[in-house]
Amino acid sequence: MGTLELLEVAREWAHRAGFEVREEWLGGVAGGACRIKGKKVLFIDIALPPAERLEQVLQALEQLTPEDRAQMPPQLRQGIEAQRQQAAGCQEKFKAVEPRQPPPTAS
To answer: pTM, whole model, 2 decimals?
Structure first.
C-alpha cells in the first residue's frame, strides 16, 4: 500500500475513532490532534507532503486503545509502532546529553 492509500485509510480510521478530521492549510508548521469544546479534532496540514500528513494521523491514532488498534490494518499498526520507537530513541538521546552549566558570574 502506497503512502497516499495509507493516508486515506488512516483518515478513515481517525474518523471512525471519533475525530473530526479537518484538512487545512497550516503553512507546514502545525497539525495534530486536540480537543475543542470536548470534541476530538484532528488537523491535517495540507502544506506538508503526504508522508508527514500520515505521521500526523498516526500520532492521533496512537491514542486509541490497544484493542481498537488491533482492528487496524497491519500497515497502520506498523506505522504507529515505528513512530513510538522513533520517539523513544529521541528521548534516549536527550537523556544522554549532559545539561549545560551556566557561565560563572563575575564577583
So the answer is: 0.77
